């Protein structure tokens, strides 16, 4: 199994643990990751220029298509953006014609056949729960986890096709394979607050505090993420005072699943900041 690996812009600079553990996980599962000279997914440009945003995305898809590869990404923001671009490229003939003209200048074209997969959707739909269960080497202690879905993958479903946006379940089902216990959490599908942090940090932190309070009230010991931006938001330890001691440790799903698959802690970039009891 082979994919073009799209890490997104943030992982290399801010979330290296995510990139390291993702690659270790994919290697263990027999997935070959091909690095291509991708540019930004285009999401940061969407508010300023929809066309530039779409061109940035479609260029990435065209590059993957050139090598007959689908794209896999651990970043839900990138996943959602590439899904949006794919949708509007097909739905808007004028936009498609303009983008095709720019692509032609770089000897690129896109036939729409390369697909975009997020880590969770790949594991659930393509690799399969049963196949994953057979690979588990050790069940982790039954700590209680509140899952953070990430907005960009869930909505709108007509474009992303990720999971039921009102009652998603694939994250909990994948997490349960490892031995930990997902809790029912009313805010699992709500925004973490990261997208507005630069423009309105006060509101962003209020959203974060509210989510952590409700996760703790639901009985969670940890918050589990599978999104670059969500993990960055929950790791904002410099704001612990503002969070009024309601903070919970945030753990990457790749590290949890990797540990259950028997991957060495060093390969998962487990630096010791998380309780060792969770990763025996």
Q: What is the topology, as strand order, of the major beta sheet?
A: 2-1-3-4
Q: Please, how many helices?
A: 12
Unreliable segments of 5+ consecutive residues: none
| β-strand number | 8
Termini distance? Answer: 30 Å
From N to C, what is the helix and strand string? EHHEHEHHEHEHHHEHEHEH
The whole-number mean of residue pLDDT values reads 92
Instruction: Describe the global form.
Output: globular
| Rg, Å, rounded | 19 Å
**Largest sheet report:** 4 strands, parallel
Account of the protein in words:
The chain has 280 residues and is α/β, with parallel strands linked by helices. The protein is 46% helix and 10% strand. It has 12 helices and 8 strands. A 4-stranded parallel sheet has the order 2-1-3-4, with helices on both faces. The protein is globular, with a radius of gyration of 19 Å. The two termini are 30 Å apart. The model has no long low-confidence stretch (mean pLDDT 92).
């Amino acid at each position: 199994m082979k994919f073009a690996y799209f890490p997104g812009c943030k992982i290399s600079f801010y979330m290296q643990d995510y990139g390291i553990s993702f690659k270790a996980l994919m290697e263990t599962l027999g997935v070959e990751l091909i690095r291509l000279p991708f540019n930004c997914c285009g999401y940061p440009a969407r508010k300023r220029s929809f066309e530039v945003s779409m061109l940035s995305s479609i260029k990435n898809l065209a590059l993957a298509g050139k090598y007959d590869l689908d794209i896999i990404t651990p970043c839900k923001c990138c996943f959602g953006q590439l899904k949006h671009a794919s949708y509007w490229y097909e739905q808007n003939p004028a936009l498609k014609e303009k983008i095709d003209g720019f692509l032609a200048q770089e000897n690129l074209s896109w036939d729409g056949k390369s697909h975009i997969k997020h880590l969770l959707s790949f594991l659930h739909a393509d690799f399969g729960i049963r196949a994953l269960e057979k690979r588990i080497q050790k069940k982790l202690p039954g700590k209680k986890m509140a899952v953070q879905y990430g907005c960009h993958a869930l909505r709108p479903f007509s474009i992303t096709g990720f999971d039921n946006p009102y009652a998603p379940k694939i994250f909990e089902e994948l997490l349960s394979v490892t031995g930990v216990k997902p809790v029912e959490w009313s805010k699992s599908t709500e925004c973490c607050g990261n997208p507005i942090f630069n423009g309105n940090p006060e509101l962003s932190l209020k959203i974060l505090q509210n989510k952590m309070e409700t996760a703790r009230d639901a009985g969670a010991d940890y918050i589990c993420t599978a999104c670059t931006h969500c993990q960055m938001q929950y790791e904002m330890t410099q704001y612990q005072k503002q969070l009024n001691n309601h903070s919970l440790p945030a753990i990457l799903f790749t590290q949890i699943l990797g540990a259950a698959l028997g991957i060495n802690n060093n390969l998962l970039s487990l630096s010791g900041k998380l309780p060792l009891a969770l990763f025996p």
